[in-house]
Every structure is written in structure tokens, then in C-alpha cells.
Automatic annotation (TrEMBL):
The lineage of its organism: Bacteria, Pseudomonadati, Pseudomonadota, Alphaproteobacteria, Acetobacterales. This is Phage DNA recombinase. It comes from the Bacteria. It comes from Asaia krungthepensis NRIC 0535. PANTHER family: DNA ADENINE METHYLTRANSFERASE (PTHR34605:SF4), PHAGE_INTEGRASE DOMAIN-CONTAINING PROTEIN (PTHR34605). Keywords: DNA integration, DNA recombination, DNA-binding. PROSITE patterns: CB, TYR_RECOMBINASE. Signal peptide: none annotated.
Amino acid sequence: MSLILPVPDTLPAPLQSAADRLALAARSPATLRAYRTDWDAFVTWCRTQNVMPLPAQPETVAAWVASRLEQGRKAATLARGVAAVSCAHEMAGFESFSRSRIVQDALRGMRRTLGTAPSRKAPVTVAFMRHMLAAQPDTLIGLRNRALLALGFAGALRRSELVALDVEDLVLQEGGALLSIRRSKTDPDGAGQTIGILNGSTIRALDHLSAWCETAGITSGLLFRSVDRHGRVRGSLSDRSVARIIKTAAEIVGLDPERFSGHSLRAGFITSGAETGADALLIAETSRHKSLDVLRHYVRHASLLKVHAGQRFL
């Protein structure tokens, strides 16, 4: 006679906690920060409506989407909010809203109302970049910002990649350097990617980096660091700081800072490459796009008037 033990409905607490940590680790730090913000917003809204946030009813989540839509939130923000609420429910052992018809109908209605075209920020093209670099003061903060802007542009880097760079990630070569990117949005498992950085004669990213590191006394560890108001080099920069640096640099040269974002350096390299006729595959070697479909948008936009079907008869 064999003894069959009953299977418990839930995992023991230590195992469940470990499983939850792994589930959270599958998401990027930026996503988790956004999820926490969205979840806090949802809880606050539920309290004002005197309804239960956890577990929430599908009708509650749909009503929250509708209220945020009235506040002028973007489609991507609304969809991310629902994902955050679903994640919180899954972590707490409740059913998510991924299959809820009521919630999915609310999201579809939102997309029909707002449209699905992404709101794209302006790229910092090479012409803008030259002015931004020239306008930076010769202070410690100015040297850092100049180096950050130039390297972000020359490497088509994301803001999260910029703030994670160490001095050891850059290996100088004749005419440029090899830059190792240990982890990125498209490489969440940390396999690592290496790109080439040209110093060039216009942007001179490596020259600006050398000036920053030498003045700041940085020989190892984090490449870009915060600087306090007394000119003392401190700890790490946040990826939001990169966005602020870009916006401020744009404003200094007379551009509308609201048109630019942390993505503008990366978009600027790709757009500038497309405008000068660089091969898409060569651009992708630096930008590390896995799919050329995304890259094709930039190339097509830059070529709309240069290569036109009506060029010979209009």
C-alpha cells in the first residue's frame, strides 16, 4: 500500500519568496521603478474611490484606466499601469487581469481613442550635438556633461547604459576604442556586447572623456558620476539625470527641452547616420538593433525627401 500525501495549495513561504524574487529579477530595474509608481497611483486612486485595491475587481481597473485617460495620460503609460496592477496581484497570489475581458476592452477603447502611434522625441543630430558640446562650460560639471553627451551620441547608447559604464569597459585602440556594454535593454541576461567608438574630428568623444576623467581624478569604477554644488565628485548618476542633462543642453542652445529625452542621443546617432547615407547594417552594429524593422523607421524618415518616387517628374 502506497502512501499518497496531499499536495498543498500554496508553496511554503521561503520557496514562494524565492520564486517572487526571481519573477521580479526577470524585469529591468527601470520597469520595476515604473511599476511601483503605477501601483502607488492605483492604490491612492482606489482609496479616494473607497474601493479595494487588492484584490481589485476588473471593473475597478477599467474605471482607473478611464480616469487616467481623462487626465491626458498616454497610451503606453495606461497599458503599463495595467501591467503593474496585474504584476502586483500575481505577486500577492491573486489572478492577474491579462485575460479579463472588461480590462482588455478598456485598453482597446483607450487605443481607439488615443491611437497607437508612438510619441517620438526629437533626435540630437550631429549639428545639434556640435552646438551642445560647444556651449558646455569648462567647469567639472561641464566637462562631465560634454563627455556624457559625446559618448552617448558616438555609441548610440541608452541612458541606462551610460550610467552603468565603468572605466574598465573602455579599451583604447588606434583611432578609437572598444566599448563593452555588460547589460542592456536588449541583453537582459548580461551576455555582453562590444561596439567601436570613433574619436572622429567633430564630436571627439574620447578626447572629452579623457578631459573629464583626468580633471575628476577618475581612474577606475564608474565612468560618469554626480558632482555636488561645491565641485566634489560623488556617487553614481541616475538614468533620469541623463535625461535632464540632455534637456538642459538643448535649452542652453535655444532648443525646446520638451522635444528631447534620454533617448535623443541614441536616436541622433542613428538619424545622423541615415542622413549621411551610412549603410543600415553598419548603423545596427553600433546601435545593436536586433531587428532592422525598428531601425528602418529612422532611415526612412531621414530619406523621405532625398530618395523620392517623384524626384524625376515633380
